[in-house]
Each structure stands twice: as structure tokens, then as C-alpha cells.
């Protein structure tokens, strides 16, 4: 724990900015009901109200408060993305490390299975499954987790294969250590840095993927607020906006707000990931 | 003789997490044209840093804080990149320790040779290629006309090292810096590389700095020797003078390493063997690597296995440890036939048979602290827990002469090379074994450190009656610690017997070649040996 704090203290400015932003998102997501001025899906005013003191970011095409929907959207989109990434890692890293350590038929079978899954374009695959299985949150999480676990599988297997050639693994094997010890105590601590970096990247991709599915109408279903569907709902407004006055111009900004929130979080995560990658590469400068 | 390089009061600082440390503390160095200067010292003495500084280069994270480096009238300390580019590679060339890492694996040898002279606009490509062939011939590379068309992985380690020396000569440099060019090579290959380097430097009238930790090698190569210790000069003298009469205690201690002798022990009459390898053959895939190998290790003795790389020494160890099942033959340990696979052997047997690897770096998990590295075998084999385990870890650290309080919470990355190897020994000892296989345990260490490890192993053997199967390519080590010697070549045992008998003629021709290839401290040794071998070749023809 102390070591972690010490490492955090050496973080460069970019990583600190990233961590601060992520913390801010987390706070907003966790405290959504307290922070949001209006309920998530209630119609609280006229349609398409401009920015004002009452509705800071105006209202959408049904008269729902945009700021409140943005805040709840953080909870829904980010929460589901996090859950999906965790699941993808449990699945991918687990089988990947096991495949590398065991070798033999298990490695061959699991690797070929992953190859097959990766051969299908993931967006098309997800669309197909979600159309068949229906668009529940559970189905969404499972489908994306399985698709993403293939990348994690490949990475963790490759990293583990490098580690498994080391003499200390041979020493453990000569001692007669079991599979559990070798994976947990010998391989995993050495594979953690690249896996953490990958976790950050994967999280961004899952997040964008959910937004993309929502944009296509197969992600989170209305009236649940999420940033992807908010972009979709207001995407056309940008073309109709009247930029003659400040108030009228805010109307055109509607799709840019959720899109901006997505972009900012992605950038923030990447700032942190860059730093972790740098740490894991072992470079001193 | 004209002065080519003049370094005065050079100070270099390294920046690390803990702050700044001075690694070169005011060293003077001068070199005339046509002269070879040997730089020796243990690791961390600043030899390589000084060697690089001679070409105006410092490693990232280091900087020159004082002094001057004058090369042929040009000041290189703090010189701008343009001047350095004109000098580096063109007038001063550098030959690194690991040629395999220094060559780009994606380019043919000759293409890499030509890069320097063509980039520096010294000559057209055709001329560079012609010169490459003639240098390859001078370096006695086989098939010099065509070897340039090969990729680095298609030639042997010794050939690659010579190709790199040839490459360093491509711009006709006035100064060459050799940083341990033969340390990674076998004794038999080393001779060829040494002879080729010496001849090429002399013929082209270049000056050279030869960095090494091997005294016998430097004695062959250098006109003058400078001894460094922790960034300071200990002494400098012409080679013959220094060999005959070293002035400083530290230099004498470097000399003394080669004369390490284990404490004499009483000789019980022919102890029974603890380990017998009986008619073992093994192969990697379809490629046979061991052919009918039989070796036996008497209890409480040291059996040394010697041979060049690729002779099957380490494979023998892997078969004994149950990592590579043999295709024929068996391994008998204390009267019991061992299962070919380690995982099928009972834990008590695994405990009694331990192995220490060559590279302590890769044999220790970088994320485990000393406490865990030593604690695990205690827990695993002996079932020790809590207080008892902690006490035993401290005992073990005491035994390997590392202070428990300072070291118990360190990570392997916070230990020096010698300390890591000691830790590996302690890990093997933790299992309370009867036989330890030592696979080249000293070859990655410099001589003073290696001597410490040998002393430790010798003491442990006397105290605990351990038996060693000691794998090495270094005959000096064999001479000092072995009771019996086994010589291997191409996966078969060529000759074996008690040490006294093995070091007495008559020898098997291969043993003869190995023995005669070990550099001696006599500066005329290489010249004499080359003369003898030439005579023999003529005689044979």
C-alpha cells in the first residue's frame, strides 16, 4: 500500500490530471441522485429550452433536463463499461494465463476459439447477438465482455509466455509447485503492469463500444439516460441550429455535450494508462 | 609516438532515483597512437563509462561534471552533436560486449558494415564492400567473400564478434574501444577473436582501449594496464611491469583470485556415489543433444563438467532435474532410480536435489522479496511457519554472509550480481539438499565476486557434506574446486577422471585444446600459442 502511494507521488502532471478527471467522473456517477437537479426521465419543461438559470444545459426534445440526464448518463454508461471490462478481464486474463502455463490441448483449443471470435467483426457480431437475444443490460454486458476478453486473452497469454521462459519459473516447477502458485505468485505479479495498462485501454474501448451500440439503438434502452443515445437523439440538431445569438447557439451544442463527456473520459484514462505503460516498460526517463 | 587521447580529471555523475552519484571521480588517461591500453576492474568500477567517455559519449542519465577529453586536439567533453557525429564511428569506433545485441537482425552483415563509411561519405558502396571482404579475411572469418551476405543469426557468436570488430574498422578509425568483446565467448573461440583483434589493431596502426575484467586476457592484449576501483584509478603501469610487480594491495588481490585453492580436507576411501547418470541420451525434438552420457558424483565431492557451449553440459543438468525426460538411460540418486519427470518425483526426493542457475537475474522472481524467496522452500519442503521460518531465513542469510536486517526486505533488483547469486545459493540450501547442481554459477560474475562465491560453496561443502555437480566452461574454476573432472564435447563424454590425472598429460586432443586455450598471465602466451598451433597445422599439412 505504501509502495503504491509512493509510486502515485512520482506521477507526472499529465497522469495527475487524468487521475483527477477520473475521480471527478467517479464522484458524479456515484452521487448522481444527489447532484442531479431533476429526475432522470421526468419531463420537466418545454421542449428544446435554451441554456438558462433554471435548466443549466436546457431541455431535450421531450422536455427532460439535459444536465440531469448527463449526470445519470455518467452512472449508467461508465458503470456498465466498468462492469463489462472487469468481466472481460476475469475471463480473458484467467484463460490466457492458464493457457500459457498449461500449454498442450487446452492452449490450442482456447487459442483457436479466440481466433474464431476475433475473425468476426465485433460490432456486427454484437449487433447480431443483441438482435437475437434482445437488448437487456445483462445481454449487453455479457456480449461485450466475451468479445473483449479475446484481446485480453491474447495479451495475457503472450505476456505469460515471456515470463514462463524465466529460470525462476523453472525453479518453482523443480520445487514441485502447483499450477495455482505458479500462476498467482510467480506469473501474475510480473504480468500486472501490462495488464493494468491494457485495462485502461480496454475500458475506453468498451465505453466507446457501448456508446456506439446505444447510438445505433441497440445499447441501453430509453428512458435510461446514456451518453451514446443522447448523441444520437440530438445529432441532427447541429444542422438546424441558428448561430446568430448565444442562446440559439446552445441548441446546436446539444450533441457535443455527451460526445465531449465521452471524449474527455477517454483522454483522461489514456493519460493514466500512458504513465502506467511507461512504468511497466521499466524506462528510467 | 604522438598523443592521440588525453583525458584529464574526468568526473561523471549518474542520476538515479536516490539522487546523484559520482561514478567516475577524476580519472586521467592518455593514449598514444599505435598503443593498446587495458582497463581492468570489477563491475561498477566505471570501466565502461570511461570507455564511452573517451568517444565523448555518456549514457542517458549520466553527465560530465568536470575535466576534459581531448582527442587529437578536439575537446569532446560538452562538444555539440555535430562535432561528435564527425568523430564518433568515423575516427573513434566502439565494439560492444554483446555483438548479438549490437547488430540489427534484419540486415545482412555487409549492409551494416557499409552503413558507416557510406553515411560519412568516406567512400562509395562498392569500395566499402571490397574493403569489408578484405577485413573479413584479415579477421580470419570463413568464406570472406560470401559471409557478408548472411544475417547476424546465421553466423556463430565468435564469428559475429569478429564481424563486429571488422565493422568497427570500416571508417579506418584512429581509436578503437573494446568493451569486454570476448567475455561472452568460450575459451576456444576467445583465442581466435583475441588474435584477430590484436593483429588488426596493430596492422592498421590504430590506438585501442581494451576493457575487461579478465586479467589474463588483458595481459595478452595491452601495452599498458590501468586498474580502476569505484571510479578512481588504483594504478597504471606497462603490462610486464604490472604483472611482475603490482604496487597496490587491490591489484594484488585481483591477481590472487586466480590462485584460489579450497581448504584441504581429509580423504575418506572412495565414498559411494550419491548420483549416477547411467547411459543417458536425450534430444530436443528430433535433434539429439546427449549421447550415452554416464557420470557419477561421489558423496561430499565436487564433480566438474566442462566443455564449450553446445556440448550438452546444461542439458545433462536438465535431465537430472527432471525437466527433460531422457530418451534412454536413467538417473540414480542415492540408490533410487529417479522418475524422468520432476513432477512425478516425491517431494522428499525433490528436496534433496537442488539446482543453482547461471543467471541469478532470471532465477529470482523480481517481484518477490528476499523473505519470500527463502521462506517459500522452507514452508514447502520443511513445513516451517511463523517465528521458526523467520529465524531460519535469518540463519540462511547469515550463512551466505548477507546481513539479515539489511537484506530481508529487499527485492532482487536491489541486490548486486554477487548478492543475487548468494541468494540463489541460500534458496537451494533452504531445502537442506544433499546434492546441488551448479550451472555456470560464476560465469556471469567478475573475478573477485566469483571467488567469493567459490569460497562460500567450498565452506558449505565442508560444513554440510554437500555434493556438487559443477557445470562450467572456465577451467580456472575447475582447477581450483573440482575433485573430479568430466570433459564433454558434442553431447558426449570425452574424458573423465580425478582432477590430478586430468590436468596431467597425456590428454585427449579435445581436452588438450581446451586446456591450452585458457589464457595465462604471461604476456607472451598468446603469441606463443598461435606460433605452436601454426606449426602443428603446417606439420599436419
Automatic annotation (TrEMBL), chain A:
Entry keywords, A to Z: Cell membrane, Membrane, Transmembrane, Transmembrane helix, Transport
Membrane protein topology class: Multi-pass membrane protein
Bilayer-spanning residue ranges: 17-38, 78-103, 123-147, 199-220, 256-277
Main location: membrane
Subcellular location: Cell membrane
The organism's place on the tree of life at top rank: Bacteria
The keyword Membrane is annotated on this UniProt entry: yes
Residue stretches in coiled coil: none
Domain ABC transmembrane type-1 as annotated: residue spans: 74-277
One Pfam family hit: BPD_transp_1
GO annotation (BP), single: transmembrane transport
A cellular-component GO term for this protein: plasma membrane
Keyword hit for Transmembrane helix: yes
Record family assignment: Belongs to the binding-protein-dependent transport system permease family.
Protein name: Peptide/nickel transport system permease protein
Amino acid at each position: 500500500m505504501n509502495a503504491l502511494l509512493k509510486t502515485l507521488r512520482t506521477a507526472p502532471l499529465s497522469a495527475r490530471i487524468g487521475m483527477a478527471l477520473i475521480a471527478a467522473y467517479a464522484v458524479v456517477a456515484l452521487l448522481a441522485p444527489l447532484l442531479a437537479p431533476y429526475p432522470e426521465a421526468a419531463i420537466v419543461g418545454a421542449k428544446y429550452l435554451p441554456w438558462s438559470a433554471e435548466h443549466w444545459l436546457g431541455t431535450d426534445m421531450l422536455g427532460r433536463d439535459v444536465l440531469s440526464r448527463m449526470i445519470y448518463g455518467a452512472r449508467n454508461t461508465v458503470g456498465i463499461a466498468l462492469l463489462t471490462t472487469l468481466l472481460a478481464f476475469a475471463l480473458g486474463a484467467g484463460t490466457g494465463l492458464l493457457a500459457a502455463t498449461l500449454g498442450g490441448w487446452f492452449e490450442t483449443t482456447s487459442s483457436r476459439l479466440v481466433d474464431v471470435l476475433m475473425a468476426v467483426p465485433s460490432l456486427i457480431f454484437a449487433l447480431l447477438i443483441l438482435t437475437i437475444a434482445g437488448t437487456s443490460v445483462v445481454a449487453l454486458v455479457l456480449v461485450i465482455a466475451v468479445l473483449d476478453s479475446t484481446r485480453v486473452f491474447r495479451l495475457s497469454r503472450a505476456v505469460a509466455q515471456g515470463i514462463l521462459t524465466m529460470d525462476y519459473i523453472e525453479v518453482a516447477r523443480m520445487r514441485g509447485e502447483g499450477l495455482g502458485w505458479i500462476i498467482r505468485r510467480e506469473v501474475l505479479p510480473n504480468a500486472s503492469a501490462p495488464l493494468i495498462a491494457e485495462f485502461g485501454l480496454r475500458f475506453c474501448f468498451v465505453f466507446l463500444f457501448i456508446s456506439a451500440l446505444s447510438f445505433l439503438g441497440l445499447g441501453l434502452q430509453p428512458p435510461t439516460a446514456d451518453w451514446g443515445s443522447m448523441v444520437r437523439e440530438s445529432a441532427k440538431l447541429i444542422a438546424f441550429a441558428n448561430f446568430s445569438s448565444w442562446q440559439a447557439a446552445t441548441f446546436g451544442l446539444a450533441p457535443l455535450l455527451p460526445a465531449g463527456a465521452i471524449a474527455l473520459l477517454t483522454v483522461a484514462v489514456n493519460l493514466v494508462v500512458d504513465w502506467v505503460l511507461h512504468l511497466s516498460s521499466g524506462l528510467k526517463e | 609516438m604522438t598523443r592521440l587521447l588525453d583525458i584529464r580529471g574526468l568526473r561523471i555523475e549518474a542520476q538515479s532515483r536516490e539522487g546523484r552519484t559520482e561514478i567516475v571521480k577524476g580519472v586521467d588517461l592518455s593514449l598514444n597512437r599505435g598503443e593498446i591500453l587495458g582497463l581492468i576492474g570489477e563491475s561498477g568500477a566505471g570501466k565502461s563509462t570511461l570507455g564511452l567517455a573517451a568517444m565523448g559519449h555518456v549514457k542517458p542519465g549520466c553527465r560530465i561534471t568536470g575535466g576534459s577529453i581531448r582527442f587529437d586536439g578536439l575537446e569532446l567533453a560538452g562538444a555539440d552533436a555535430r562535432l561528435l557525429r564527425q568523430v564518433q564511428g568515423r575516427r573513434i569506433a566502439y565494439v560492444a560486449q554483446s555483438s548479438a545485441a549490437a547488430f540489427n537482425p534484419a540486415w545482412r552483415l555487409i549492409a551494416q558494415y557499409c552503413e558507416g563509411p557510406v553515411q560519412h561519405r568516406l567512400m562509395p558502396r562498392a569500395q566499402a564492400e571490397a574493403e569489408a571482404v578484405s577485413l573479413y579475411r584479415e579477421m580470419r572469418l570463413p568464406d570472406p567473400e560470401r559471409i557478408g551476405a548472411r544475417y547476424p543469426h546465421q553466423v556463430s557468436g565468435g564469428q559475429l564478434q569478429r564481424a563486429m570488430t571488422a565493422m568497427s574498422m570500416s571508417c579506418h578509425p584512429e581509436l578503437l574501444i573494446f568493451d569486454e568483446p570476448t567475455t561472452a565467448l568460450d575459451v576456444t573461440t576467445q583465442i581466435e577473436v583475441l588474435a584477430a583483434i590484436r593483429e588488426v589493431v596493430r596492422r592498421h596502426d590504430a590506438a585501442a582501449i581494451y576493457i575487461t575484467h579478465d586479467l589474463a586476457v588483458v595481459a595478452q592484449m595491452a601495452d599498458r594496464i590501468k586498474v580502476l576501483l569505484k571510479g578512481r584509478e588504483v594504478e597504471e603501469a606497462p603490462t610486464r611491469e604490472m604483472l611482475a610487480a603490482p604496487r597496490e594491495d587491490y591489484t594484488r588481490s585481483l591477481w590472487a583470485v586466480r590462485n584460489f585453492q579450497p581448504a584441504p580436507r581429509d580423504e575418506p576411501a572412495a565414498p559411494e556415489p550419491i548420483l549416477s547418470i547411467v547411459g543417458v541420451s536425450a534430444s530436443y525434438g528430433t535433434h539429439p543433444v546427449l549421447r550415452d552420457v554416464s557420470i557419477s558424483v561421489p558423496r561430499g565431492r565436487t564433480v566438474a563438467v566442462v566443455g564449450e557451449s553446445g556440448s550438452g553440459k546444461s542439458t545433462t543438468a536438465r535431465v537430472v532435474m527432471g525437466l527433460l525426460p531422457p530418451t534412454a538411460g536413467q538417473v540414480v540418486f542415492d540408490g533410487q532410480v529417479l522418475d524422468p519427470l520432476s513432477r512425478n518425483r516425491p517431494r522428499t526426493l525433490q528436496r534433496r536435489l537442488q539446482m543453482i542457475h547461471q543467471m541469478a537475474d532470471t532465477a529470482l522472481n523480481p517481484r518477490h522479496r528476499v523473505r519470500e524467496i527463502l521462506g517459500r522452500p522452507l514452508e514447502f519442503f520443511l513445513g516451517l511457519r511463523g517465528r521458526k521460518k523467520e529465524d531460519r531465513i535469518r540463519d540462511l542469510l547469515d550463512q551466505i554472509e548477507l546481513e539479515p536486517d539489511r537484506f530481508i526486505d529487499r527485492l532482487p533488483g536491489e541486490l548486486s550480481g554477487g548478492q543475487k547469486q548468494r541468494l540463489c545459493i541460500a534458496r537451494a540450501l533452504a531445502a537442506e539438499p544433499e546434492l546441488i547442481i551448479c550451472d555456470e554459477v560464476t560465469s556471469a560474475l567478475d573475478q573477485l565476486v566469483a571467488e567469493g562465491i567459490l569460497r562460500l560453496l567450498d565452506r558449505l561443502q565442508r560444513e554440510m557434506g554437500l555434493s556438487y555437480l559443477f557445470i562450467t566452461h572456465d577451467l580456472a574454476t575447475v582447477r581450483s574446486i573440482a575433485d573430479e573432472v568430466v570433459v564433454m564435447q558434442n553431447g558426449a563424454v570425452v574424458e573423465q577422471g580425478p582432477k590430478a590425472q586430468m590436468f596431467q598429460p597425456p590428454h585427449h586432443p579435445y581436452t588438450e585444446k581446451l586446456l591450452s586455450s585458457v589464457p595465462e598471465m604471461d604476456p607472451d602466451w598468446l603469441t606463443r600459442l598461435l606460433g605452436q598451433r601454426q606449426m602443428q597445422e603446417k606439420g599436419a599439412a
